[in-house]
# Entry
Amino acid sequence: MNYKLSQKILGKIKDSENILVNCHTSPDPDSLGSALAMYIALKKLGKDVEIVCPDNIPDDSKFLPFSEKIKKIKFAKFDFSKYDLFLVLDSAGENMITGISDGKLPNIYTVVIDHHKTNKNFGNINLVDVKVSSCAELIYKLFQDWGIKLDTQLATNLLTGILGDTGIFEYPGVGVETLGLAGKLMELGADKDEIVLNIFRTEEFKNVKFWGEILKRMEIDAEGKFVWSAVSYDVYNEYGKPGGAKDAAAGMFLSLVKGTDFGMIMLEEEKKTLAVSFRSRTGLDVAEIAVELGGGGHKAAAGAKIYGLEFDSAVLKVLGAARKYARKAS
# Structure
C-alpha cells in the first residue's frame, strides 16, 4: 500500500454518484493528464464524472484521450448542486481551482490530491505527497492501491503529466522510481515521442514571435542574480494572446543565463491581472517567492498571479518580492 488514505478516498468515491474533478487555472500537462486519468479511472468504477476548468485547455493538449470532456466554467456561476464529491487535483490553493483571487469552493465533500509543498490542506481529506515528481505520479501510485488496471489511454495521460512536471526529466530530483514508472507507462502503450512532439515541440508561429518580445524586454538584476521580463496586456493582445507562450518561454530561457540563480516572466493576461512564472537555475526555492505573492509551486518551478494593480505597480511588487528573496538567499 503506497498511501494510508488510499482506501478512505476509494470508499468516498464508492459512496458517491456524481463526482466533480478539476483542472487548475492555466492548466499545464500535469493538471490535464492527472484529471483525465482520474476521469477514466472513475468511469471504470461506474461513476458519473465531469471535469471542469476555469480556463480553456491549450491546443497542444487536445490530443490527449478524453480531453474534449473538460468543460470551461465560471466557478461563481456554475451549479454544483448535483455533485456529492469534488476531487481537487494538482492544486495547492483555492485560487488555483477557481481562477479567482478570492474564489470560494463549493460546499461539497472535497478530497485534495496534490504534490505541492505549498498546499494549504483545505480539503476534507488531504493526500499531499511532496516527494513525487508530479500529481500524475501520485495518482499512478493511488491507482495501484485501488487495483485500477491501466490501459493505453490511462498510461498516455499519466505519462503526459510526468513529462510535463519534470521537463522531460530535466528538473532536479527526478530519480530512479520516476524513470522506472515512466518506462512501465510506455510498455502499456503511452507514446513518449507523440507526447513530447505535441507538448514541447509544437508551437504556433505567433507564439514563437511573441517569445521575441519576451526576450527583447528581458533584463538582468546583477545584485539579485536573476533575470526578468515583463510584457503588458497591450503587447500580449497585439499577438493574439498566445496561450501557453509564457510558460514555454520560462521553461526554455530562464535557466540559461550565466551568473543567475533564478528568473521570472511576468505577463499581463488581462488588465490588472499579472501572471508570473518562476524558474530556478541553481536549486534556490522559487516557491518561496510565489507564496509571498499569493501563489505556489515547486522548488524549481512556481507561479503566481497579481490581481487589481496597474501593470507597472504589479511588476514592481513582483520585483520587490524577488529582491527580498535574493537578499535572504545570499
